[in-house]
Amino acid sequence: MKHQFLKVAAVSPALKVADPAFNAQKIIEAIAAQAEKGTELVVFPELSLSGYTCGDLFLQQTLLDGCLSALKQVAESTKGHPMLAFVGLPLLYGGKLYNCAAALSNGEILGFVPKTHLPNYHEFYERRYFTPAPAGLAWLSFSGMENDGAAFSSQLIFRDVHHPEIAVGCEICEDLWAPDSPSVDLCRRGATVIVNLSASNETVGKREYRHKMIAAQSGKNLCAYVYAAAGEGESTSDMVFAGNNMIYENGSYLAESMPFSGETCEAEIDVGFLMSERRRHNTFSVEEGDDWLDVAFVGEGDLTLRKVDPLPFVPPEGERNERADLILNMQAHALARRISQIHAKTAVLGVSGGLDSTLALLVTCRAFDLLQKDRKSILAYTMPGFGTSKQTKRSADDLMEALGVTAQTVPISEAVSVHFRDIGHDPAVHDVTYENAQARYRMMVLMDVANKHGGIVVGTGDLSELALGWCTYNGDHMSMYAVNCSVPKTLVKYLVRAEADRLGGEAGKVLSGILGTEISPELLPPDAKGEIAQKTEDLVGPYELIDFYLYHFLRRGEGPAKILFLAERAFAGKYTRETLKKWLVSFFKRFFAQQFKRNCVPDGVKVGSVSLSPRADLRMPADASASLWISEAENL
User: Is 606 a catalytic residue?
Assistant: First the structure.
């Protein structure tokens, strides 16, 4: 296992009803194929050695003996493979018959998990044959194996010897559908992965319901869920089985084998993320108990299947328009509420012709539409200074005109030059004083205008800038309400693009032009051609990398080594390892050093899963040491 990723598979091999030898051979072939892929956990369907639809043949000792013999063959086939496998079979214990899952690893039968909830309604009549799982722990002895017996209980957790966070619990089919699913207790006892051996038949709408059930179960239990369903070969006398396997992680879909496809469902589960989520959610607690048993196994594999999204903050293509509208409405409603609460007569904001101020203006227009206020009441200011290019000034003017707001221009170069004389600064020295004086003067203009007109200054800075501290303290760092404060730069681009498509016409044309403009604070003079010289991404790194690092660091609780490991896969062919490492080190240095700015940010709406507000999501001392993270990143 690398970086706490567990490679898993749910397999529904073809079977013959009541033919354990045939079924065992198919399972053995599947195990060998998965071993070649480095799979560490493989799950087969309910009663996969006998077939689920045996009916009264379950009462035949011949079938039971055949299944146990077949189980030993399958167990033997796992020898030498660092893998945990689950197969289903009917098992006689204490004179009663149980519907069981057997856990196998490295040639041994580790334990039997009997089914707790037996359906006896509609097309199901399992109580005709089987007995529900008994309470407590027991030991089942048998001959012909290196180990002379195995634990028998619904309270077993199978734990990786070298990686104890890999803890696997098992339930069987109906157990998931019951209100008191065993998986709830299994997770509360430490299981991070739940496997389900199922024989759920196929009916119209059932696949969709399975998705909801498994998503909810994995989400509320902060676990991964591997679901293997019966498929080809089961009797079709009264039902049909589709082999619709699924894998979920913390409520999120990872993989599925479509009904009747005969495909294997494979994925890589991020157990490190699950552990991080459990630390974060204080309503989830792991309990200890003497009546529960940990069973050890050894796993070993590498990451090859999992797709790593290079833009984790940006919604999938099919959801983009709907998600963009939702986010913009969240921002607009939040701003409208603040305007109403303080009885503001207007909203004031600076418009630079860049992405952030563009989004803030779009949100402000939505808020005024919600409040049924005239957009002319929005006071939008361009404040050209030493670094303002003709292109961005034109974009700002065109945008304000297209959106129908009141546009004002206040040149700041002369006033800032006077300020330089007052404080004895040489304007030929283009240092931090030169840059920040412009940003602070602009904020002073906006604040004073807001006071004059009884308005509110709308902040424009985004989440990515706040994470890096790429803002001027008490300049663009400040506002009276920050609508973009939890919107990362990659998402800002996406939202502006969505609005360009929605609005069309002149506004859409202007927005498209802004999207093509180089990202810059424009605090240094343009180059000889009058074009932007100060390029943000040359200084702090590509924003797609910054947002990737931010998401995996804060949302998923990952360290530098794992983040770089994932970044290499997400940006393969685009950035070298050296480049990724360079900006990763830079990210951690900036993130820790700039916390003092985040500790005093204005109010602002949270729209996603990551926020840096000191009042809501990130309580971090400004003098925290970054040495652990920087050292790990530098020495990768």
Answer: no
Instruction: Please report where in the chains the tokens 């983040």 appear, as a residue.
Output: 563
pTM comes to 0.89
User: Could you tell me the fold of the domain covering 5-297?
Assistant: Nitrilase/N-carbamoyl-D-aminoacid amidohydrolase (3.60.110)
The Cα 227–Cα 177 span in angstroms is 13
The answer to whether 20 and 238 have CB atoms below 8 angstroms apart is no
Task: Find the catalytic residue in 54, 67, 100, 173.
Answer: 173
How far apart are the two ends of the chain, measured CA to CA in Å? Answer: 18
Q: Is the CB of residue 599 less than 8 Å from the CB of residue 622? A: yes
600 annotated active-site: no
- 49 three-state secondary structure: coil
Structure tokens, 152: 């028998």
Residues 533-586 pLDDT 10s: 889 999 999 999 999 999 999 999 999 999 999 999 999 999 999 999 999 999
Please tell me the class of the 317-634 domain: alpha beta
pLDDT for 575 equals 98
| Average pLDDT of span 389-406 | 96
Residues β-bridged to residue 102: 87, 112
Q: What does the pLDDT look like over 4-34, one tens digit per residue? A: 999 999 999 999 999 999 999 999 999 999 9
Asked if 174 is an active-site residue, the reply is no
Q: Residue 50: helix, strand or coil by DSSP?
A: coil
Q: Where are the domains of the chain?
A: 5-297, 317-634
Task: Give the active site residue among 7, 26, 46, 126.
Answer: 46
**How do residues 286-307 score in pLDDT, each as one tens digit?**
877 656 667 766 666 566 778 8
Exactly one of 7, 26, 115, 493 is catalytic; which is it? Answer: 115
Q: Please report, for residues 99, 393, 399, 448, 480, the alpha-carbon distance to residue 382 in angstroms, rounded to integers and kept in the order given.
A: 73, 7, 11, 15, 18
Q: Which residue has the tokens 């009058």?
A: 530
Average pLDDT over residues 86-115: 96
